[in-house]
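Q: What structure does this chain adopt?
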Amino acid sequence: MLKHKTALITGSTSGIGLGIAEAFAAAGANVILNGFGDAAEIEAIRSRLASEHGATVRYDGADMSKPDAIERMIDAAIAEFGCIDILVNNAGIQHVAPIDEFPPGKWDAIIAINLSSAFHTTRLALPAMKKKGWGRVINMASAHALVASPFKSAYVAAKHGIAGLTKTVALEVAEQGITVNAICPGYVRTPLVEKQIPETAKARGITEQQVINDVMLHAQPTKKFVTVEQVAALAKFLCADDAASITGAILPIDGGWTAQ
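A:
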């Protein structure tokens, strides 16, 4: 389905990003991984994806908080593959605290990685997509692009910003064979969410099990975590020709959370 396409997925050494990388490699795409982690573990992931799926898989460790590093990553990818056909802006971090206790450095880092990085990757990847007359930009937002939760001021602000960026760019490129959409997962049990559990317990003064039952899954009427595989399947569908008329969409996959 994605043979001869090249996909760059930021924040793809674990969690949702890695699940999307796996799905795209299985569909025949060249894949560029990005993210932090142990070098040997990342190389093992890269090698496994390449050997299991017969895909060309590269890794770029660009720090998504640094515009210069992002530009070098995009330039290197285009130099090797000619175009980033599919851009998935997935990199993200989180910090949970009341706003009057929120460290300004954490605010700046979350806005830089969760929002500004998507601006930089998109502006740099679009010219080659326009020249080719085909492209897919998929922004990983969150149910928090649509609704808020206490103690997550920076994350909610960034994800609402991602929703606005998605709609704006979709309108700008609507006649050029490029779609731009945002996927809004509810709670997916990834390393990022695992880290939120004790932080939220501390912020709210409750147990970690209460965070899972009464905060996270309470928000989702299905009472189930969304799976990485479900999010990856939606991302892959958005790359298909059948999805060519889906653009500027903010797509919840949240167990009914934002239906309430």
